[in-house]
């Protein structure tokens, strides 16, 4: 015979067990999603290798599986594999899937470009004018991916702070790799150009006041001069100079409206009203960032000067997590990637502040732009 009231105790316990089970299953789901995150990257790599965004674009913006099979040159036997690849990339919102008419179960489904996959077009037409293909494609290649498998080994080294993860994996640093190969240098500059084209469009369109009142600007480490050319195009009265290492300047294009100057930012930076450092400081540790900023302070006239340094870089946590969780995740993942590649860092505001103050600057202003990066204006 059951004890009186026994059921009253069992029901709350059952609810508690059910809640525990739900939490465990949610944690289980989270772990699977996290552990298999690399598969998303490899699925994206496969789509880029096959030029699937370009194939959809060539099909008029909508492509069936049969269309994609023909456009990519895959054999008919790969149709089920292609379907599963596209299902995964649709689930991660790289592409979208539509049925026409939508209420007809027998209707043929077609894949369409999203705002994300339009950035992955590799062609030279107007649709790909902001293509990030040259910047994204290297990130999913073996050269940058394989070092990540040895992160624990690198962290256990006493010389980890002086030796990048990339160097541990490949025997030489990424800067040395780039300097030794004209092809790698060209690919690197292509990636920087692609990023700069989009970012400067956003900066000049959304925050033009950053450049108002300037008559001269030096783009420090400005590569082929894409950012400086964009500024000169928007503000023709600003005399724009690009300073970079001699081998970079020797390969720079002519006729883009800016001057090029060979130099070393650790030694000397020419004077100007403003200095631009776009995605430069994240390549370096704090000590080297302080050295660069000290040279910048000298170039804008010291503490009594009226110039400024314009930094375009990530400020981790510049937006509360709940407001833009995907932005914060992208920022911290970029931080691990740049740590692996160069021993560099993406930084939080307090880490930027310490660099500025130790270099001799007194004030700064952060303007967030949509995406990973922010604009930081630093004043003596």
TrEMBL record:
Residues 32-122 form the O-methyltransferase dimerisation domain. This is O-methyltransferase domain-containing protein. Residues 164-361 form the O-methyltransferase C-terminal domain. GO terms for biological process: methylation. The active site is at residue 282. The keyword S-adenosyl-L-methionine applies. It holds the Pfam family Dimerisation. InterPro entries: COMT-like, COMT_C, COMT_dimerisation, SAM-dependent_MTases_sf, WH-like_DNA-bd_sf, WH_DNA-bd_sf. It comes from the Eukaryota. The keyword Methyltransferase applies. PANTHER family: O-METHYLTRANSFERASE. Keywords: Methyltransferase, S-adenosyl-L-methionine, Transferase. It comes from Setaria viridis. Signal peptide: none annotated.
